[in-house]
Amino acid sequence: HWHGFFQKNNSWADGPAFVSQCPIAANNSFLYTFPSASQAGTFWYHS
Which family does it belong to (predicted)? Predict the structure, then answer.
């Protein structure tokens, strides 16, 4: 989950399991991609 980025039309990939996205199964991964070149500031990620 990211803080500080504007993620227009990307809420399906940022949030709690079963609320705004499907859970990530054990031993699997999720590649998080979104444009950020035009953004500046402090960004924070946590899971």
Answer: Belongs to the multicopper oxidase family.
